[in-house]
User: What shape does this take?
Amino acid sequence: MAWQWFHRLGSPKWFYEKTTPWMPWLAFFSLLIIVGGSIVALGFAPTTVEQGNSYRIIYIHVPASIVAMAAYYVMALAGAVGLIWKMKLANVVMKVAAPIGAILTALALFTGAVWGKPTWGTYWVWDARLTSVLILFFLYLGVVALQGAFQDREMADKSSAILCLVGMVNIPIIYKSVDWWFTLHQPASLKFTSASTINSDLMVYLLLTMIAGFYLFFAWSLLAATRAEILARESKTQWVRALLHKPAEPTA
Amino acid sequence: MTFRFDSFADFIAMSGHGPYIWACYTALLIALVAIVIRPMMKTRSVRLEIKQQQNIALRRAEQKKRT
Assistant: This one.
């Protein structure tokens, strides 16, 4: 059956068992790439004439921003699937993506502000790019808050999903903000359709590597958080009990 | 690929940008650790809860045996 995988995916137990062998590999490679990439970024990457060493912040700032937005897609898509097909697993993914996205957005905002000080002379300006990313951060916090606000699981999932979908409007605004408005923020450094504004090959490859590392880390953390949430929600079931706690020896 | 700094002190100072750069990489570390720890803590609490419930069930069974 073509739809069998879809129904299976709805089964938390099947998902948990299926993803178990992936976890150490994702953890290993994301750690390797992010740690290795950071070492190269800090000590070996060339810098630009205009920005000097502060340019080394780009290797955190850009990947964190990209994956923070990708996390929103995942969260909104999961929310939509949960809303339409009432799939348990999709609601779990939506719930656990929110705090991860919030942390990544906070990292992007923080590194951006700290990078802004030596480059623009200020930590913060209320321009289109910065403000729209701040709104992204609040949307994530909104989903986290909604999840905590309801006693009823179904109500919490439904209202968070609607917030996710409404908030989707913000994503193209973030992307296009540097083109639509006059902002202090520089336009995209990497372009697929024309030459990137970065002039060194090493910089481009290093940035792409860090982006890949962040994506891998996001994949790992999303799976890890989903698996933990599955265990919490299914803690009354036999398979979770058997998995987490070896049954006490029968007293003779 | 060559190391871009003459000395370790140079590397830390980053020609005056040191505080900004090290603040960002510290923030990266904190963010990653926060994201990694959250699911671990959750699984831990579920495990403890299951253990407690099983201990309670065991004790009840023992009490029943005695009476």
